[in-house]
Amino acid sequence: MTSVRDNLHAVRVRIARALERAGRPKDSVLLVAVSKGHPPERIREAYQAGQRQFGENRVQEFEQKRAALQLSGAVWRLIGHLQSNKARRAAEIFQVIETVDSARLARRLDDALAAGPPGRRLPVYLEVKLSPEPTKAGCPETELSELAEQVASLSRLELRGLMTMPPYSEDPETARPCFRRLRQWAERLRLPELSMGMSHDLEVAIEEGATEVRVGTAIFGERQ
Ligand SMILES: *Cc1c(COP(=O)(O)O)cnc(C)c1O
């Protein structure tokens, strides 16, 4: 098994090259290490190699791992679908939630914050559904403007950007139209962050304007 440290280095090089090719400033993409399906030891290796941003996709899985992962300065981002009934706990254990896809969920998160320490605001992204696959979570494009308005009106949520997960394809070029569309939406809604691109298509996402890529396999290897 290759070391997490070497893998992380290789991914950072890929990001730097893609930024350069796209004529974008150095360090203008945040690398989120997607640690779902991997044990705390492996995640700690990434932390020791300087990684601070992590993505997990299930509240329950992270709940089980987090006691072993009290890493100072680490930022935990929820990147998987969130059910309203888990919103309260998610708001407690994650620092960023990238998968808000309904007004109901947004209100639940806002209510959860109201019950917590005063003054805390939670950065959130809207997950956008850009493909017709019935299983893909996310807000349909036809409802996106309205959802953005509703979320922006909640005082304890800080609407930062959009995220999407295109249908899986071996060919990274397949995702390009989705990435481009997400960027157009972010411009229209005046949102600064674009979370898009994974292990196999991060270059295409960066060319299309990603400000954040979510990379699992290329850092940690295959999931169990
Ligand atoms: C698993 C996952 C990723 C990372 O995928 P890899 O192909 O392993 O890099 C990114 N985003 C989301 C939402 C995921 O669930």
Explain what this protein looks like in three dimensions.
This protein has nine helices and nine strands. It is 40% helix and 19% strand. Strand 7, helix 7 and strand 8 form a beta-alpha-beta unit. The longest helix is centred in the N-terminal third of the chain and has 18 residues. The mean pLDDT is 96. With 224 residues, it is α/β, with parallel strands linked by helices. Strands 1, 2, 3, 4, 5, 6, 7, 8 and 9 form a nine-stranded parallel β-sheet that branches. The radius of gyration is 17 Å and the shape is globular. Helix 4 crosses helix 5.
Bound small-molecule species: pyridoxal-5'-phosphate
Number of helices: 9
Shape field: globular
Roughly what fraction of the amino acids lie in strands?
15-25%
Q: Report the span from N to C terminus.
A: 14 Å
Radius of gyration: 17 Å
| Backbone structural class | alpha/beta
Q: How many strands in all? A: 9
Quick structural overview:
This protein has 224 residues and is an alpha/beta fold. The protein has helices at residues 4-21, 40-48, 59-65, 87-93, 103-114, 141-152, 176-189, 202-207, 217-220, and strands spanning 30-34, 53-56, 75-78, 96-100, 122-129, 139-140, 157-163, 193-195, 212-215. It is globular and about 45 Å long.
Task: Tell me the layout of helices and strands.
Blueprint: H1 4-21, E1 30-34, H2 40-48, E2 53-56, H3 59-65, E3 75-78, H4 87-93, E4 96-100, H5 103-114, E5 122-129, E6 139-140, H6 141-152, E7 157-163, H7 176-189, E8 193-195, H8 202-207, E9 212-215, H9 217-220
Parallel strand pairs: 1-2, 1-9, 2-3, 3-4, 4-5, 5-6, 5-7, 7-8
Helix pairs in contact: 4-5
The structure holds pyridoxal-5'-phosphate.
Residues 34, 36, 57, 79-80, 165, 198-199, 214-218 line the site of pyridoxal-5'-phosphate.
